[in-house]
Amino acid sequence: MNSRDDDHSVRELRDRIAAVDRELLDALNRRVALVARIKRAKDDRGLAFVDRAREQELLDALARVNKGPLSPEGVREVFRTILEVGKREATRRDAAL
Q1: Closest by alpha carbon to 83, among 63, 56, 61?
Q2: Omega of the bond prior to 69 within 30 degrees of 0, cis?
Q3: How far is residue 30's CA from residue 32's CA, in Å, rounded to a whole number?
Q4: How many domains in the chain?
């Protein structure tokens, strides 16, 4: 394989990664919109927005069903970040309404 083939292979893989990144971005935006809806529903009922037990259940369930290659620790780390950003963005979005 020459360097021209390598460049093509790397470019093709990068293009595939970029497509996955766009899918992730779309999914994250949908998730934030849903979290904002939950926040409004809980606010309307006088319930606490954050449920740490529910978050732990979610992390445990995702780590359990993960088929890899992402490690269970990686799943937990990624989704902890998604949870934190989602709550922050939902609160910002709610404040902007």
Answers
A1: 56
A2: yes
A3: 6
A4: 1
